[in-house]
Specification:
By secondary structure, this protein is an alpha+beta fold. Strands 2, 4, 5, 8, 11, 13 and 17 form a seven-stranded mixed β-sheet that branches. Strands 3-6-16-9-10-14 form a six-stranded antiparallel β-sheet, with no helix packed on it. β33 (about 645-650), α15 (about 665) and β34 form a beta-alpha-beta unit. α2 (about 245-260) crosses α5 (about 400-410) and α5 packs across α6 (about 415-430). The longest helix is centred in the last third of the chain and has 29 residues, at about 590-615.
Length: about 775
């Protein structure tokens, strides 16, 4: 089947000319729409409706005043998890006079030399809320808007956030998290938050109001992406206009890479050749040198791991809206060890593409042009059998990034552009000053023997599971199920076969951001235990094991009742499942037992994975499962300490602070940051990512500041940026993320400020980290 495209003659002419048309939305002014002012601070409104957390507020009469003569200065404390201002009026704000509405406010960041990522959360009387975010450059007045009510706001179009529906000089606040269908006809609370600030910061707020929003045009998502996978709605600095330009930029960069000599202070494996030499074991290991932890490379040189994660094509695809009636593309091997989002490109036969049909017409309309199935670029189509989060059950995908590699480097023979990508990526990493890959480096890099890497695997399979209450990535495994142990061995054996005892492999990550539970309440911290206790012991290995542990402590059910404040009639009642989520009060004994059970669960997990690795990969370090910042309680850390060689954490904030990392000294073990990033809107992408920068130059500054904090901390032995290239503009197939998180754009063109910052960091890396060591 030949893929059909419906391009107007004008668009065809544009494409043939090698240029792109820019469609600019008509701009408007919020002041022309009906509105209700909530706070203008003219009455010195510092009453009980305004409260603060790690912040101080005062009336400002000069800087940042936009309406009247007064505004509100908010000064927040650095190195705190949550800082800011909460506005909670006596009665909920009635928003029903507006058919569509937005929260609009004026703001100025008056912190010298630092941008501010401002979060705003709006909560209705039922306690449901949505949080949005915006980046504020230093010393610039901004008007920001937070879309509240519109029938389309909760629609999932396969994008983590959509483009602005109207042209506006104001800054649209972007979704922080996921979309939800929430009624904001009544508003109970509005909070203005700055999270994990690296230093004390100040903003000025004024003219906070609810405004009637214009209607969202029906076709505002039509043809938003061009043939290069770029934003077509407006122009921006990094936009490519032709294949010729793409090739010229490639030739320029290749000449620069060829002319740059290797760093003279690096050993064969990227260690510090000019520093002290320790015992070389032939493999990477860790050692505490003086007061700071270090990795040691196979030759015995001190090593600090800096690099980029997710250097693979598996996450480069986006759903096109097409699907196939041929069921063969949806077959699953029950013994497969690779999750859907880690699979590479799926080769599609003519027989499969002949059954293509338009499954999601609203999605296919987003693309100005996609290649026909019989065109040279058709090899960049692939398939996903599922989506983790989003509106697609399954469907056809396309990799604009891979297609742009083909345009950029050419394909004199099949796969040549991918071979070139491997070579160029390695040259870049060395030139940019990195010492290693991060997690999820493509297998094709493993035996190039030019850049150290981390192998990775997932324990997936048909074992029993248990919820934790924070199951974003799915439920947790029942680690006491023998099938979990079997699948862990299967996974590790595949990883071992891929690595083949290669000394360039630093170590192994297994799994990622497991949902252990969030400290804060019994329900959130011990969700795994609570959900396990609800299960029937005859069907649940984890319930059976927890019962065994508790019976060893409490001879009879009445002994447990006395300690827990419960009234179970027998162990038989217990075995069928008990629900303690609504227990009126949790005794100290109950919480202590829950802590013991959670640690027993986590210990079993790390023991199973560790033992599987030790059996077939004894020479390579185990680096854990990369804890998410919201899921690394003391029980889980204590369990990991028994088995991992290096603790790994994913930490998406402005930088590493001190207050929330004091536990590193208690553990006194090497640690590594597995993921962090910053993004900005001047990339043309629809969303910056998790952490916002003001622009590309600010990204570069923030990158260096984050890395300096990690390098200066005696317990960290590395940090990895996520990821190598931007998410697809129309959202990655896995979950719709459409973030400016790459060191390179989807055209494979590097962001120069970020690259220059990495080079500067590479020049000072080892002297900054180990310079005082003799």
């Amino acid at each position: 089947m030949t893929r059909l495209t419906t391009l107007s003659p004008a668009i065809i002419l544009i494409l043939l000319c090698g240029c792109q048309e820019t469609s600019q939305k008509e701009t408007f002014d919020w002041e022309q729409y009906p509105q209700e002012v909530l706070l203008d601070f003219e009455e010195d409104q510092l009453d009980a409706s305004l409260t603060t957390e790690h912040a101080a507020i005062s009336i400002e009469t000069e800087t940042g005043v936009t309406s009247g003569n007064k505004a509100l200065r908010v000064s927040v404390e650095g190195d705190e998890k949550w800082t800011g201002l909460i506005y909670k009026p006596e009665a909920p704000i009635n928003n029903t006079q507006f058919s569509r509405s937005s929260l609009v406010f004026d703001v100025k960041n008056i912190t010298p030399d630092y941008s501010v990522q401002l979060f705003v959360s709006v909560t209705n009387p039922e306690g449901n809320s949505i949080r949005r975010s915006v980046a504020l450059p230093s010393s610039i007045n901004k008007t920001c808007y937070f879309q509240l009510n519109d029938p389309t706001l909760a629609n999932d179009y396969g994008l983590r956030d959509d483009p602005a529906p109207w042209g506006s000089h104001e800054d649209r606040m972007l979704i922080s998290g996921l979309k939800y269908d929430i009624d904001f006809s009544q508003i109970a609370q509005i909070s203005f938050e700055i999270r994990h600030p690296i230093t004390d910061k100040e903003i000025v707020l004024d003219n906070i109001r609810i405004v009637e929003s214009p209607p969202i045009p029906d076709d505002y998502l039509a043809e938003i992406v061009d043939s290069f996978g770029q934003n077509i709605m407006y122009d921006y600095p990094y936009r490519i206009t032709s294949t010729k330009e793409l090739q010229e930029l490639a030739r320029e960069e290749l000449r620069e890479l060829e002319q740059t000599p290797p760093r003279s202070d690096r050993s064969q494996f990227g260690g510090w050749k000019n520093g002290p030499k320790l015992e070389g074991t032939g493999y990477f290991r860790t050692e505490k040198v003086g007061d700071r932890w270090a990795m040691v490379d196979p030759k015995g040189y001190l090593f600090f791991s800096t690099g980029l994660a997710n250097v693979r094509l598996a996450n480069s695809t986006t759903f096109t809206g097409m699907d196939y009636r041929d069921e063969s593309v949806r077959y699953r091997d029950p013994e497969d060890v690779t999750p859907e989002d880690s699979k590479g490109m799926v080769e599609l036969s003519d027989e499969v593409t002949a059954t293509a049909y338009d499954a999601y017409p609203w999605r296919t309309k987003m693309f100005q042009s996609l290649p026909a199935y019989d065109s040279p670029l058709a090899n960049n189509y692939s398939y996903r059998r599922e989506q983790h989060i989003g509106p697609f059950e399954h469907g056809e995908t396309f990799s604009f990034y891979q297609a742009n590699l083909e345009r950029r480097y050419g394909e004199p023979e099949p796969g040549a552009h991918l071979d070139k990508w491997i070579d160029v990526t390695l040259d870049r990493f060395l030139n940019w000053g990195f010492t290693s890959f991060g997690n999820w480096a493509a297998y094709e890099f493993y035996h190039e023997n030019r850049m150290p890497y981390f192998a990775n695997g997932w324990v997936i399979g048909d074992f029993k599971t248990v919820k934790s209450g924070f199951d974003y990535w799915g439920p947790m495994p029942d680690v006491f199920d023998p099938e979990f142990t079997r699948r862990a061995k299967v996974t590790v054996e595949v990883v071992a076969e891929e690595v083949r005892d290669n000394p360039w492999c630093i170590g192994v990550f297994i799994d990622n951001e497991k949902s252990w539970g969030m400290p804060g309440s019994v329900q959130s911290e011990f969700g795994i235990v609570l959900y396990a206790l609800k299960k029937d012991a005859q069907e649940s290995p984890i319930k059976t094991e927890f019962t065994r542990l508790l019976k060893s402590q409490y001879p009879g059910i009445n002994d447990l009742n006395a300690a827990w404040g419960t009234s179970f009639t027998s162990w038989s009642e217990w075995d069928t499942g008990v629900d303690l989520f609504g227990h009126p009060s949790y005794s100290d004994a109950l919480k202590a037992d829950f802590s013991t059970l959670l640690e027993a669960y986590a210990t079993k997990y790390f023991q199973v994975v560790h033992d599987a690795l030790a059996e077939v990969m004894p020479n390579h370090m185990y680096l854990g499962c990369r804890f998410a910042s919201w899921g690394m309680g003391k029980e889980v850390r204590a369990a990991a300490q028994k088995y991992v060689d290096v603790f790994s954490y994913n930490f998406y904030e402005e930088a590493i602070g001190e207050k929330n990392w004091e536990f590193l000294a208690e553990i006194d073990r090497p640690a590594l940051i597995g993921e962090f990033h910053m993004g900005a809107m001047d990339s043309g992408m629809l969303h910056p990512g998790i952490v916002f920068a003001a622009n590309q130059e600010d990204r570069a500054r923030m990158y260096k500041a984050y890395m300096h904090r990690v390098i200066d901390n005696p317990y960290f032995v590395g940090a990895h940026w996520f990821q190598y290239f931007d998410s697809p503009f129309t959202g990655r197939a896995h979950d719709g993320e459409n973030y400016n998180v790459g060191f390179v754009a989807n055209t494979d063109v590097p962001y120069k400020p970020l690259v220059n910052a990495a080079r500067e960091l590479g020049d000072e890396l080892y002297t900054r980290r180990f310079g005082a060591i003799k």
